[in-house]
Structures are given as structure tokens and as C-alpha cells.
Design a protein that fits this description.
This protein has 485 residues and is an alpha/beta fold. It is 37% helix and 19% strand. The protein binds adenosine-5'-diphosphate and alpha-D-glucopyranose (GLC).
């Protein structure tokens, strides 16, 4: 089966969040199961720099507003998964991030930049493709940036691939002024309620959710949540109307990249049989961050986008009592100014107990994941979440809310779950600051009991968090979708 996997980020080429981790690791897992898969991605400077064995593949013409774009065929540096990069200087070769400029402001031409990603994906997925020797059976579109692909395909009068639209986060909808419909060469009839119109504007996410042959999302619980008003961000009705075509498949993680026994970023390797190395990593982390070096002080960690979704304002609210109890806190993240400033001022006030690194730092994220005792992730909603899984893999029990992929991947610690060796973390009963404090205090009582704590750590480290099972489910979904009328 030929699969075109369309994504606006893929680790290690370019990453701003979990989508990159998934787009880097899932295609490799699918390839091991026999899929003939290629990733399609915009040619950002980092992508062009990091791709290996690159050669010109085709020239795309007739695209809106740009004369032409060159497709390059290369490979992922580590997994060798084939990648098609869209090289177009005017759209993608800029300083700043994939979505925002160096001041954090969205690029004004994002609808064009991702409209063209979507359109190129569609043109590669039909019989008139300029790459005639490799036409996919399935085009797997990820998040709003690839959301227009199913719409373009629906209105193409040719044999074409079936489309799957994966939603990683309902909160990001790619909603723009209606004039983009004609600007992006979409037919006028697509602009209606039964189409991509959304409250007088056009939405990339709605286009994907409406026109795709099947919808996927990144955990079974989120697949249900996204059909409700509380989590659907206005799209719940549409998703619910297709509920029999919505598939919740839990993300896996890349277990080589995230492996405490062979992680080049951490001071000492360790595994589930021997956790001594983790103490050294904690010590090295405390030293690096300027915290008091103390093996017994419970060290809590955060690596996150600092946004309302992640619920870290609740952690700020209860930081005082936690620090009084002797806890330390290591935060790495960036995002909303208020949260950044909140953690920065906490670190200024308690320099030996709190460290706040504002920014994006891949090596430090591994050091924190390995060096802290508990990972705090009180998300208000979380389609899947990867950090709680990295935490379990590194013997760092996560403290999480009961939502989306957090609910599907973390097993709460209680007498029964301890007896069955299934307890891997701590789950809040409700998403409030008060409950977060309660749950951390509850975790601290287990932490004080060294033997039981090790069991919780080991339970997490022994979980199979790899893509094996979930990649198989995607293969099934591809086969099912292929035969759909
Ligand atoms: P989301 O995609 O919603 O941000 P996930 O938990 O799925 O959440 O994935 C986040 C990914 O981004 C993880 O790999 C995490 O380690 C990484 N990450 C988030 N913030 C930072 C940061 N400031 N520095 C380094 N890595 C980060
Ligand atoms: C989104 C979600 C996150 C998920 C990631 C990868 O960024 O917010 O929960 O893990 O996508 O699927």
C-alpha cells in the first residue's frame, strides 16, 4: 500500500510540538509493517538542511500566487523514510518558526503557505500527478495545515487516493477570511455549511473533517471528547455526525530516541533493572539548574508549551505550599507571556528551589525527563500527550488530569493497581488547582516509601509504549478506507 503522509512538521527535520514526534516516528513504524510511505512537508530551511540524499523529483506549476515549486525527494536522516519537501523560497525559506515570525506573530500568508501544502498533496494523490511512478492509495493528512487536501481531492474529476484526516488538536482550526476560497483555487461550491464554511469564514480543519473519507485522532478518549461541546471547539456537531467514521488510535513513542539506557543527553544511563543512574542524572540536573543538590528533595518537572491547554497556571497557584513541603521545580517551556513571567518570578523568588528555562531546548527536555522525580501535566484537554509517556519510560511517574490520551495512557496509583503492577502515575479526580495539590501530596506519600516508588517507576518503564500496536491499527484503517465507496 502506498501512503502519502502530509505534515507541517516531522522530527528530526523540524519540530514545535508533539505533531513532529508523531510524524517522525509513525511513518517509520508503518514502513516496518510493509507500507510504502512518503512524508510530504514544506521545505523550511531546517528541512532542506537536515534531509539527506536529496534529489529533484518534479516541478509543480499552476499553483496560486507562486510561479512554481520544486519537489525534492530525500530521506529522514535516521530512519531513512522517504520525504518529499516542497521547495519554494517565497513561501517557506524564512527566519522564524514554521507558523510564526521571530516576534511570535503568525505569518500573514499562512493560508497560502498551507493551502499550497494541501494542494500539492492533492495533486500528488490523483492520476494526473507529476510523479506518475508513485501515486499513493491513501493520503494521510495531519492537522489543519493539511486540511484542504480532502477538499481539493473531492472536486477533482479523476481517479484519486482515499483521504484520512488526523486531528491532533481541535483547538487549532486554520480559520481565515472567505476570500481565501477563490484565492486558493477552491471551487465556490465548497464554501457552504456542508463544506468548509465556518461562521462566515473558511476553515482548514473543517474542510478536512468534512471531506476526508475517514477521520482519525490520537487517543480513544479524545475521539469521544471531541464530539462534545466541552472539547469540540465548535466542531463537535460535524464530528459527531460522522462518529462511525472517527477512529481514536493512541499515539506511540519513538523508543530509541527516548530511552534512558542509551540517551546521549543524560549524565548516566539507567534502566528498569538498575535505577542508580537516575540519581546521578538528578544530581547533574540540580547542579546545571542551580538548585540545591539534594537527593531526597522531591524534584517536580515540566516540559511544555505554556498555554491555557496545559493547565500550568494551576501549578503556579499551588507552588507556594509545594515548595514549603521541600519540593523543587524544574520548568522548561515557552508560550503565553503571563505563564512565562509567572514561572520566571517564582525562580527569582526561590532560586535554589525553582528553575525556569524559557525557550525551546531538546537536550534539556531529555535531561529533565530523566532527572526529575515526577512529571506534572495537568492539561485541561490533551488529545494524546507524549510527555506523560516519556515520563513513564524514564521512571518519572506522571501526575495528570483525566482527559484524552492522559486518561488512556496513565494508570493511577492505588492499592489495587499496585497489587496488579499496573500503577504508573497519579491521576487527578478533577482539573482544579486544589485537586492538583491533593494529588501531588498523595504522590509524595508514595515517594517517601522507596520500595513502593520503585515499583511504580518500574511499572511505567516496562509498559510497551512503542508504535507497534497503534501502527497496526493505522494499517487496518488504511485497508478499510481503501475499499470504501
Ligand atoms: P503538544 O504537542 O500539545 O505540545 P505533546 O506532549 O504531544 O504536546 O508533545 C510535546 C512535545 O514537544 C514533546 O516532545 C515535548 O518534549 C516537546 N516540548 C514541548 N515544549 C518544549 C520545550 N520548551 N523544549 C523542548 N521540547 C519541548
Ligand atoms: C497535539 C496535541 C497533543 C498530541 C500531539 C501529537 O499537539 O496537543 O496532545 O500528543 O498533537 O498527536
Amino acid at each position: 500500500m502506498r501512503i502519502l503522509f502530509v505534515s507541517s512538521e516531522a522530527y528530526p527535520l523540524i519540530k514545535t510540538g508533539g505533531l513532529a514526534d508523531v510524524s517522525g516516528s509513525l511513518p517509520a513504524a508503518l514502513r516496518e509493517l510493509g507500507a510504502d510511505i512518503r512524508i510530504l512537508i514544506p521545505g523550511y530551511p531546517a528541512v532542506l538542511q537536515n534531509l539527506i540524499n536529496t534529489q529533484p523529483l518534479a516541478t509543480m506549476s499552476g499553483l496560486p500566487y507562486i510561479e512554481s515549486a520544486t519537489l525534492l525527494l530525500g530521506e529522514m536522516p535516521d530512519t531513512k523514510v522517504p520525504v518529499i519537501a516542497i521547495q519554494c523560497e517565497a513561501l517557506y525559506e524564512r527566519d522564524g518558526g514554521p507558523y510564526v515570525d521571530s516576534h511570535g506573530k503568525d505569518w500573514d500568508d499562512n493560508p497560502l503557505r498551507f493551502g499550497i501544502l494541501s494542494l500539492v498533496a492533492a495533486q500528488l494523490s490523483c492520476e494526473d500527478s507529476p510523479v506518475s511512478d508513485w501515486i499513493p492509495d491513501i493520503v494521510h493528512c495531519n492537522d489543519w495545515q493539511a486540511g484542504l487536501t480532502p477538499a481539493y481531492l473531492r472536486f477533482m474529476d479523476q481517479v484519486r487516493a482515499k483521504s484520512i484526516f488526523s486531528i491532533h488538536n481541535m483547538a487549532f482550526q486554520g480559520t481565515y477570511s472567505a476570500e481565501w476560497v477563490s484565492k486558493l483555487q477552491l471551487p465556490a461550491e465548497s464554501y457552504q455549511m456542508h463544506g468548509l464554511e465556518y461562521y462566515g469564514r473558511m476553515s482548514f480543519l473543517k474542510a478536512g473533517a468534512y471531506y476526508a473519507d475517514a477521520i482519525a485522532t490520537v487517543s480513544p478518549t479524545y475521539a469521544l471528547e471531541m464530539q462534545t461541546e466541552a472539547y469540540g471547539f465548535g466542531m463537535q456537531g460535524l464530528i459527531a455526525s460522522r462518529s462511525h467514521e472517527v477512529h481514536g488510535i493512541l499515539n506511540g513513542i519513538e523508543t530509541h530516541e527516548w530511552n534512558p539506557a542509551a540517551d546521549p543527553h543524560i549524565a548516566k544511563p539507567y534502566d528498569d533493572k538498575n535505577l542508580v543512574g537516575k540519581k546521578h542524572v538528578k544530581q547533574a540536573l540540580q547542579t546545571q539548574l542551580g538548585l540545591t543538590v539534594n537527593d531526597t528533595a522531591p524534584l517536580l518537572g515540566v516540559v511544555s508549551r505554556l498555554t491555557h491547554q496545559k493547565g500550568l497556571d494551576m501549578l503556579l497557584e499551588i507552588a507556594g505550599p509545594l515548595l514549603e513541603k521541600g519540593c523543587q521545580l524544574a520548568v522548561l517551556g515557552n508560550g503565553e507571556r503571563e505563564l512565562e513571567n509567572g514561572f520566571k518570578s517564582l525562580a527569582v523568588r526561590y532560586p535554589q528551589k525553582v528553575s525556569a528555562v524559557i525557550g525551546y531546548n531538546e537536550p534539556l527536555s531529555h535531561k529533565i525527563m530523566a532527572g526529575v522525580d515526577m512529571f506534572v501535566m495537568p492539561s485541561r484537554f490533551e488529545p494524546c500527550g507524549l510527555n506523560q509517556m516519556y515520563g513513564m519510560r524514564y521512571g518519572t511517574p506522571p501526575i495528570v488530569t483525566s482527559t484524552g490520551g492522559l486518561a488512556d495512557s496513565v494508570t493511577d496509583t492505588n492499592t489495587q493497581n499496585l497489587r496488579h503492577n499496573t500503577a504508573t502515575g497519579f491521576v487527578l479526580k478533577s482539573p482544579t488547582a486544589h485537586e492538583l495539590l491533593n494529588t501531588i501530596e498523595h504522590a509524595l506519600t508514595y515517594y517517601a516509601d522507596v520500595k513502593t516508588w520503585k515499583r511504580i517507576q518500574r511499572n511505567g518503564m516496562r509498559r510497551d509504549l512503542s508504535w507497534k500496536e497503534s501502527a497496526g491499527k493505522y494499517m487496518e484503517l488504511y485497508s478499510q478506507t481503501l475499499v470504501k465507496k
